[in-house]
Design a protein that fits this description.
The protein is of the alpha/beta class. Helix content is 12%, strand content 25%. The longest helix has 9 residues. It is globular and about 45 Å long. 43% of the residues are buried. The N terminus is likely disordered.
Length: 232
């Protein structure tokens, strides 16, 4: 199945998201509505995970090159917390399946189960579907805006030679670079530090997981892993 590109030109990293100021929230936030407080009344979330458990799952990661702060879990709909779920698939264990219609990423496990992560996905006009594979992996990757983005947002020109890795870098702590037929598609699965973005369509076709979830997936994903992006 052929991936439909999102009008991007070759370059490291990904095209940014909705136009705006050149900072992480501008790239990843767009006009997404805040999800804060949904289903978080009382001592437990609506799906049974306690707030203490969620806070522990998404706690700080101080051992990173750039220490990652804790996620404010009150800003994430509990249905997007990381879970092991029943999932029927003909794909081999280890395969990554992106479900943009429901804002989930699945890693297929043994025994008819999968690890499920909440995600942000492409906004209207930038969604794509098809098969790809992880061509390479990056920790705290350099991000370089494609030429088309620089035309739309001239302020991005200062990063034409690359924005160094860091908490403000749009690619975040970990990146899975998606390839097809030996060529980089410019699409990635990347780490997001914006909890409000999870469950929203805000990117130019890339898929973002919370940083803690992305590290979890990254460690379990070797190069050449198959990635299936379903139709939205």
């Amino acid at each position: 199945m052929i991936i439909r590109t999102a009008n991007a030109e070759a370059g490291e990293g990904r095209d940014g998201v909705a136009p705006g100021l050149l900072h992480r929230r501008s790239f990843l936030f767009g006009s997404a509505a805040c999800l804060g407080g949904l289903g978080l009344a009382g001592c437990a979330t609506s799906d049974g995970m306690s707030l203490a458990e969620a806070s522990a799952l998404y706690g700080p990661v101080p051992t990173e090159k750039f220490p990652i702060p804790a996620v404010d879990v009150s800003k994430v709909n509990p249905k997007y917390y990381r879970r092991t779920v029943q999932y029927t698939s003909t794909e081999a264990p280890g395969t990554i399946i992106v479900d943009p219609a429901n804002y989930y990423v699945y890693r297929i496990e043994e025994g008819g189960r999968a690890t499920r992560y909440g995600a942000n996905v492409g906004r209207d006009g930038f969604r794509w579907s098809g098969n790809a594979y992880v061509g390479r992996k990056s920790e705290w990757a350099t991000w370089t805006p494609p030429k088309e983005m620089i035309k739309r947002q001239p302020e991005a020109a200062k990063y034409a030679r690359g924005m160094p890795g860091g908490l403000d870098n749009p690619l975040g702590a970990r990146t899975l670079h998606l390839y097809q037929n030996g060529a980089y598609t410019l699409y990635t699965i990347y780490a997001s530090s914006d909890p409000e973005s999870i469950g929203s369509g805000i990117t130019s076709g890339c898929v973002g997981l919370l940083s803690q979830d992305m590290i979890h997936l990254y460690e379990r994903t070797p190069v050449k892993t198959k990635v299936v992006v379903l139709s939205a």
